[in-house]
Amino acid sequence: MRRFRWPLLVVFVLVLAAAAVLYRLDRHPVHVPALDAIDPEAPSRPAYREVGAPVLVVTSLERISERARADRFPNADWSVAWLNLVRQEFGDYAHVDVRTLRPETLEGRTLVIVTRSAADAAPVDALHAFATAGGALIVECPGDRWRATTGVSLEPLGAARPARITGAPAHVLAQDEREAIAGAGIALPTATARPGAPIGDDVRPMLDLDGRPVVWSRAVGRGRVVTCGIDVGRLLVTVQQGLPEPDYRVTKKRWGFYKHVLESHDLVCDESLLKNAIPIADVLERSLLAATGVRETTPGWWAFPDRAPGILLMTHDEDEYGAERCDILREHERAIGARSTYFLIAGRRLADGWRAADARRFADDGADLALHWNQLPMLTGIWKVEPISRQFALIDQVDWFRDLRSEAGIPSAPILNRNHYLTWASPAEYASGDTHYTRNFRRMYRHGIVVDSTYGPNRDGRGYLFGTGRPFLPIDTDGQPIPVREMPFVSQEDWGGEDEAWFARLFADSEARYHCAIACIFHPHLIVREPDGNRLWKAVYRLATAHRHPALTVRDYYDYLERRAGSSIRRTGDGWQLDARGTDLAVVLAGRPEVRIDGRPATTTTIGIDGRPHVLVAVPAGRSTLTIHR
After folding, report:
1. Which distant-in-sequence residues (6+ apart) come within 8 Å of 482 by Cβ?
2. Dist CA 630 CA 620 (whole Å)
3. Interior CA angle at 139 toward 137 and 140, to 5°?
4. Average pLDDT in the chain
5. Residue 495 vs residues 242, 275, 570: alpha-carbon distances, Å
6. Helices and strands (H and E) in the chain: how many
7. At what angle do helices 500-509 and 531-546 cross, to 10 degrees?
8. What band does 324 get if pLDDT is binned at 50, 70 and 90?
9. What does the alpha-carbon distance between residue 191 and residue 283 come to, in Å, rounded to a whole number?
10. Is there a contact between 490 and 518 (Cβ–Cβ < 8 Å)?
């Protein structure tokens, strides 16, 4: 027997050593990049939409593609970003390439926007005739060939630099609003073009930046022409979508909290937006429209259901806290008749997470469940021994989330998402400098995500960091949109100094002038463990109710936006033919007109938008005729 002792001892020692190694690896897993799946991406898609809507946007695909080949952010043509403006403000619109623009294309339009990409090739005579006959025309950065129409001839654009709004007529931007913007010190990274010749005597300045006019208006016949001496498309992309390096990477930790990942917070274009209670991009968009006067004659679909002045999107990032500890949220929200969205993370082992019964319980109480895409390393192995960490691909997490919904008996639906840690580049990507500006949106689009809410503040930030209280479509580096609605949020608990007074101001301003979807995050663990967090969360619901902001889920709002996008407005004789895809839709008009639906007085609500009176007109589902009397 003695001769067997040494081999047995060797085997015992090897087994013990292996167990020790596995134990250590289980406690300190080794990251194995070779196992990381690479997510496929879907390209952006052309955005043309040739319908009979009253608002027409004209771009040049040839020009946009030519500028995109330089593969540099400052050199790109961002004209398609104008579509976010008309989506937010009108809902229904048409979009054509300048090569297809003919006089007959202009029939039935009340507003035509000739973007920077199309200004050099657009048929000036036909558009001049359109304005003379009573149409409103916006021309972005026109050259000398437009001078007879605009009364302004602009030199080429200069380099973008921070600029501040310093002046505007009261009908374009109310004085108290100008003062609020000035007091907030908001700077807009803007490329401007100076006039290259004397401006016509009949041309009036509509907006000043740093004391110099950059937007002008001129009456032409019975219509009006507005000239933009700023690159509006680039400005909207820079503010709403964020500012990358010239090569489209985002390599610097500007403002975010976590040092090992790149966050959406780091995309914010200017420090003045980091604690900002004014949705400045929305204000700028509406100012440009106010300069045309088109809102007084042209209805557009209202942005929120049931003529609400705004909405609350209450969201909870579950962060592996577990369904049982989220029950305190579910029970209170059920008691007050509110609805919220829970972003569920797959867990450190991917298979972890909520049970199907938990998901079913929350869904039965009106909560919605969304994905919390985790780009941090998770664990893998055999049984409870997990010596390897790896980054699971988005496709794996989407499959996990779909399986959870299926097992819970929740009907399949388009996926909504928020990135865990607001990650815009994983630790590995950030360490290697592989931090492309728009890649995450392409990944989301490829895997069926239709709404994302990753843009917003981490610690030490609050408010409209991306200048908007409405969802927008990101624009890819080829100048075309990616069909994922990005809905920025405004706060995480009180991490940026939020308190009840701050939320009270946010809701009051939204009700009176800005009209926003106020999205915020309250983490379950803070609500359960910290009395202050619990009180603030409940106060937000009370304030939303007091200021007529119904609490909806992100999916509720997505479904409404789909109904809105499927509804149409067409000019017909002296009125407007409306086709509404739901009873909760309304149209908005400037001023206080008398409005009739199918010949009968319409149900209206008076509201203020950026200091100017407007009416919301209730519209029945299906077809109806709207007439306006002033």
Report:
1. 44, 438, 441, 442, 445, 473, 474, 475, 476
2. 22
3. 150
4. 92
5. 21, 11, 47
6. 17, 35
7. 20
8. confident
9. 18
10. yes
Mean pLDDT, to the nearest integer, of 284-310? 96
Determine the average pLDDT of the residues in 602-616: 94
Q: pLDDT per residue over 425-480, tens digit each?
A: 988 888 888 899 999 999 999 999 999 999 999 988 999 999 999 999 999 999 99
Q: Give residues with Cβ within 8 angstroms of 2, minimum separation 6.
A: none
Question: How many Cα atoms sit within 13 Å of 263 on the Cβ side?
Answer: 19
With 0-12 / 13-18 / 19 or more C-beta atoms within 10 angstroms meaning exposed / middle / buried, residue 363 is middle
Amino acid identity, position 563: R
Taking the C-alpha atoms of residue 238 and residue 269, their distance in angstroms, rounded to an integer, is: 6
How far is Cα 191 from Cα 59, in angstroms, rounded to an integer?
A: 19
Question: In the predicted model, is pLDDT for residue 19 greater than 80?
Answer: no
DSSP conformation letters of 418-481: EEGGGEEE-HHHHHHT--BSSHHHHHHHHTTEEEE---S--TT-EE-TTS-SS-B--B-TTS-B
List, in order, residues 6 or more apart from 152 with CB less than 8 Å away.
142, 146, 195, 199, 200, 203, 216, 218, 227, 229
Residue 41: what residue type?
E
Place of tokens 């610097």: 252
Q: Is 536 helix (H, G, I), strand (E, B) or coil?
A: helix
According to DSSP H, which parts of 133-224 are helical?
147-150, 175-184
Backbone angles phi, psi at 456, to 5 degrees: 165, 180
Element (H, E) at 262: strand 262-263
Q: Which pair of structure tokens corresponds to residue 179?
A: 């003062």
Question: What is the distance between the alpha carbons of residues 522 and 528, in angstroms, rounded to a whole number?
Answer: 11
List pLDDT tens digits, range 87-133: 999 999 999 999 999 999 999 999 999 999 999 999 999 999 999 99
Name the one residue in this structure whose structure tokens are 């938008």. 609
The percent of residues above 90 in pLDDT, for the chain, comes to 77
| Count of all residues that appear for the chain in the document | 630
So what's the pLDDT on residue 38? Answer: 75
Average pLDDT over residues 475-486: 97
Averaged pLDDT for residues 206-211: 96
Residues in a beta bridge with 491? 520
Between CA 537 and CA 522 the distance in angstroms is 7
Per-residue model confidence (pLDDT) at position 1: 45
CA 609/CA 441 separation, integer angstroms: 31
d(CA 38, CA 342): 27
Structure tokens at 518: 């106020």
Amino acid at 477: T
Coil, helix or strand for 109?
coil
Q: Where are the alpha helices (DSSP H) in 154-279?
A: 175-184, 232-236
The mean pLDDT of 230-251, rounded to a whole number, is 95
Look up tokens 């000043």; give the residue: 208
